[in-house]
């Protein structure tokens, strides 16, 4: 989700597409949180393996990251409607407007979305090169590539924001 591309008004009560903006943000954060947990599980499983090879380790880490990402996204798809049940439209507008108003949030969304896209594209390219199926179990690897890319985007953002720019957005 590239937050910079969403329409953004001067006042929260005029914010268009509040449900879509908030839902995509929450689902993306769920995907990223699940990917981070899946990555941790994959690393632990790889380290516990008796004979880990680089190819096996990469596949295991990618699969667990993808599964974690899908589970994180799915959990947010359940939690968001529960959390926002009965809320007025203005409350959705206010939350989505605040997301778009926060320059740091827009910046991290941009970096993570670009990372997810690069991770997705590079995983598909690697799978095609190695003759792996892009269907069935291969989808887990593809989701894992997007998850790893998103996490790499967050790390890149943190290096850029806090390392290069000293924590300033402007």
Major β-sheet profile: none
Shape: globular
Helix residue percentage: over 70%
Radius of gyration: 18 Å
Annotation keywords:
about 170 residues; 5 helices; mainly alpha
Structure notes:
The chain has 170 residues and is mainly alpha-helical. It has one domain. It has 5 helices and no strands. α1 (18-48) runs antiparallel to α2. The longest helix has 31 residues, at 18-48.
Short description:
The protein is an all-alpha fold.
Topology (elements, then pairings):
Blueprint: H1 18-48, H2 54-83, H3 89-101, H4 103-129, H5 137-164
């Amino acid at each position: 989700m590239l937050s910079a591309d969403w329409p953004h008004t001067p006042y929260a009560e005029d914010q268009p597409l509040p449900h879509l903006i908030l839902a995509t943000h929450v689902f993306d954060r769920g995907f990223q949180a699940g990917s981070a947990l899946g990555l941790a599980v994959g690393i632990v499983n790889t380290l516990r393996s008796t004979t880990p090879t680089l190819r096996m380790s990469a596949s295991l880490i990618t699969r667990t990251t993808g599964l974690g990402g899908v589970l994180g996204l799915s959990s947010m798809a359940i939690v968001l409607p529960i959390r926002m049940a009965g809320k007025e439209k203005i409350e959705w507008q206010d939350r989505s407007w605040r997301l778009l108003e926060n320059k740091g949030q827009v910046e991290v969304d941009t970096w993570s979305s670009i990372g997810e896209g690069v991770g997705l594209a590079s995983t598909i390219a690697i799978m095609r090169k190695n003759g792996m199926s892009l269907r069935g179990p291969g989808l887990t690897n593809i989701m894992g590539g997007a998850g790893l890319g998103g996490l790499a985007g967050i790390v890149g953002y943190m290096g850029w924001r806090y390392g290069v720019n000293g924590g300033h957005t402007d």
